[in-house]
Every structure is written in structure tokens, then in C-alpha cells.
Amino acid sequence: MNILDKIIQRKKEEVSISKLQVSIQELKDSAFFERKTLSLKENIKSKSGIIAEFKRQSPSKGIINDKISPLEVVSAYENFGASGISILTDKDFFGGSFEDILNVRNSVNIPILRKDFMIDEYQFYEAKSIGADVILLIAACLSPQQVQEFTQLSHESGLEVLLEIHTEEELKHYHSEIDLVGINNRNLKDFKVDLQHSVNLKNQLPKNVLSVAESGIYNIEDFNYLKEKGFDGFLMGEYFMKHENPAKKFEEFISNAAI
Hints:
It is a single chain. By secondary structure, the protein is an alpha/beta fold. The chain has helices spanning 3-21, 24-28, 40-46, 70-79, 98-102, 122-129, 144-156, 195-202, 220-228, 238-241, 246-256, and strands spanning 50-54, 57-58, 62-63, 84-88, 112-115, 134-138, 160-165, 180-184, 210-214, 233-236. The chain starts with a helix and ends with a helix. Helix 4 runs parallel beside helix 11 (246-256).
């Protein structure tokens, strides 16, 4: 069983427990559920293109940075030009929580991506209830039909969809209603990074699709290379979070990258 299989198995257990604790109606009655969402699609076109991530840890890297508050980091991300913010809500493997979004939602005015492993329609109501604007669909753990159904459900709630792919086979998960397509430079099963593989996949997408390079962007050269190859957005977390002061690192990156 690889790490993705373990995460999905645990996620199914989590969702089953959550359903018993909080009903969908209770989620719909939450303060943020009727909030008008913000568009990541539009922000990527008009700002830096960077979706800057708040991430404490990961299965491959262990603890990255667990000493700094989400609000301090994401406020700086916004101030220095991020197009959006990605916040991990998986607890067991990434050290995240719903509170990380809830605690910053009223303090930032750019879209927030709830980054998690979405496998059940219940999670989409959760995402809306905590103030997310965008959700992530990972092709590696969903069927093309599930992607289509979850996209429709997301749009009914005003949420945008970022579809993540990593293989040619997963290109079949794309359909015209998808808002953005993320191509993960890092293989979820063995964690190897291959930027050229991502470029090859991007070139097989329809020309009008907004593409986001995800993971494994370790320096400005990687960023500039991917931008030169036509990527519209860039999901980056570890590069900033591994530093003692992620906000300062982000500011330095913005000032030196080819944006």
C-alpha cells in the first residue's frame, strides 16, 4: 500500500466520523456558507499567478514549519502579490485543520483553496462552510465520473475546481467544466520530481485551459522555466514554508522572479 492509498483509507474513516458529528444541514447553516466566493481563475490572470501555500508538514518531508501562525503567513502572501492561498486541512498526514482556514478567512481578500483529498460529497459542503473558494480534485484517487459529479456539485455551491493530474492516463479526467488544471511535478506514489514530464502533459491540454504547476518548484530557475513553458499558475508551499520567515522568503521570491 503506497502513501496515497493510506491517506485515502484514513480519509474515508474521517468523513464517516464527521457525518455522524455534523449534518449537511448544519454545514449549510454555518456563517460562511452563503458567502460569495472569490475567483482564483481571475486572480491568476491578473496577479503573480502564485498560489502560495501554508503547510506545516508532509509525508515525504516530515515537519516543515510548525512554529508560525497561518494568519501571519497568509497575510504576507496576500500583501506581496499572491493570486491565491492554499491551506492544507488534512490533519494526520499534513498537520492541517479547518481552523487554519476559519482563522484567516475574514482577514484576507484573495481566494483560498481547501487542499485536501476530496472523496465524498460531504467534504464539499464542509469546504463551503469554512470559507473556501476553491477545492482540489486529485485524479489519482477519483474516477473521471466522480470528477464530473464533484465539479458540478462544487459549481452549484459557487466553488471553483482545480483538477490535479500527473499522468497521461489522468488527462481523461479533464472535461470542459473544470476551472483550472494542476499538473503535479511530484509523483504522489514515489515523490520523484520531473518538470519536463509536467510540460509534456501541459502541452496535451486544450489551449484555453488555465494550467497550474504544482509541487517541486525549488528555486526561481524552476519557476521561470515553467512560466516560459506557458504555465499560468504556480502552487508553491515548501519553498517558502521551510524557511524560518516564510513571509520574507515570499517577498524576496516575488521581487526576483520573472513575473
